[in-house]
TrEMBL record:
One of its GO terms (biological process) is organic phosphonate metabolic process. Residues 141-152, 368-379 have a biased composition (Basic and acidic residues). Residues 140-159, 368-392 are annotated as: Disordered. Transmembrane segments: none annotated. This is Alpha-D-ribose 1-methylphosphonate 5-triphosphate synthase subunit PhnI. It holds the Pfam family PhnI.
Length: 392
């Protein structure tokens, strides 16, 4: 018989105390601070900010510390805090063309006006553990800086007051000038959807899709993007341009009537370029997939751009054959907070439900046994129904 397990306030308090103890670890080791997490675990912080939909490095670092490094739990904490904040304005669209760029690469044009900028990247590192990082704090960094021919900060422009940063043209502009890239015209008169206030309706428009993809789980998007490259959706693009840098955020206060800058944020941006064979309404040309996320989330925005392009299949008249092309499938399963909640709710008591299913399974087994035994009796007396005269 199944016996229900009960828990009380003391048990829950003890569980919280154990969690605090696990979070702290060995007291002999110095406690990590949110500032250290923010400064030295920056990519983890950026992912939490991006999928938590709140640009605040300090809070994201605090959430990571509270969650013992569990990123989905930290994203949940940040999302929950976000709901407590008042909204005082909506920003104007950021201008990433005017980005203070730290990294800019293109796989379609080698010689870009303004040049390619490697910036901080794992791309050219050997995937070997660097044990110097565990020996003397700062030793590896000092050694690499000593090998560098010039200061690291000279690799990209720095936004000092009064300086005008160079504007780097987009790679997509080169294709647009030749008419080889599908135009994407901004519809300023159309209201932009807001998935934080309105539930997503299907089929979803592109503005809603991009919002959902920006908050989507990186691993889920990476898997879907990978599937499109392997043939599920025939989506094998070129990385038109990938950028990392700081952009200004502006709002237009009603009492002023003109835009004012309220700060800078770091974003990653990706434009994928896909071949489009044309249709009855459009000639053969290239189309775009787009990705944008807070912080340094290059892999995330690349996957996002792949999935964005796949989700444009219907509007481009392409056959929808793969999961990555189905907006209902993608958007309904991409949010890791919702997915985590639904999966983890299985830990909550389901005693009554399980008892009901237990009884059902027992009854089905009993009915099956009864039916089988009935058949066996019939098989044991195969001549019982045979007329006597025939049997004789």
């Amino acid at each position: 018989m199944y016996v229900a397990v009960k828990g009380g306030e003391r048990a829950i308090d003890s569980a919280h105390a154990l969690l605090d103890e696990q979070r702290r670890g060995d007291p002999a080791v110095a406690e990590i601070s949110p500032t250290q997490i923010s400064e030295q675990m920056g990519l983890a912080v950026d992912r939490v900010m991006s999928e938590g939909a709140l640009y605040d490095r300090d809070l994201a670092a605090l959430a990571l510390k509270q969650a013992c490094g569990d990123q989905v739990e930290a994203i949940f904490l940040l999302r929950a805090f976000r709901t407590t904040l008042a909204r005082f304005a909506a920003s104007t669209p950021i201008d990433s063309a005017a980005m203070n760029t730290r990294r800019r690469i293109s796989a379609t044009y080698k010689d870009l006006p303004g040049g390619q900028m490697l910036g901080p990247t794992f791309d050219y590192t050997h995937r070997l553990l660097d044990f110097t990082l565990a020996e003397t704090p700062g030793a590896a960094r000092s050694e690499r800086r000593a090998k560098s021919e010039r200061p690291v900060t000279a690799d990209y422009p720095v936004a000092d007051d009064g300086d005008e940063l160079p504007v780097l043209p987009r790679v997509s502009e080169f294709l647009s000038r030749e008419g080889l890239l599908q135009d994407e015209v901004a519809e300023d008169d159309q209201p932009v959807g807001d998935i934080t206030r309105d539930p997503i309706a299907f089929p979803a428009e592109r503005d809603v899709r991009l919002q959902a993809l920006a908050r989507a789980d990186e691993g889920f998007l990476l898997g879907l993007g990978y599937s499109t490259q392997r043939g599920y959706g025939r989506n094998h693009p070129f990385a038109g341009e990938i950028r990392l840098g700081d952009v200004a955020v502006e709002i237009v206060p009603e009492e002023l009537g003109f835009a004012i800058e309220i700060g800078d944020i770091t974003v990653s941006e990706c434009e994928m370029v896909n071949q489009f064979t044309g249709s009855a309404q459009a000639p053969a040309q290239f189309t775009r997939g787009y990705g944008l996320a807070f912080g340094y989330c290059e892999r995330k925005v690349m996957a996002m751009a792949l999935v964005d392009r796949a989700l444009r299949a219907r509007e481009l008249g392409e056959e929808v054959t793969a999961p990555a092309q189905d907006d209902e499938f993608v958007l309904s399963h991409s949010d890791n907070v919702e997915a985590s909640g639904f999966v983890q709710h299985l830990k909550l008591p389901h005693y009554v439900d399980f008892q009901g299913e237990l009884e059902t399974v027992r009854k089905l087994r009993a009915d099956a046994d009864k039916a089988r035994h009935g058949d066996d009796k019939q098989c044991d007396n195969p001549v019982s129904d045979t007329p006597k005269e025939t049997a004789s």
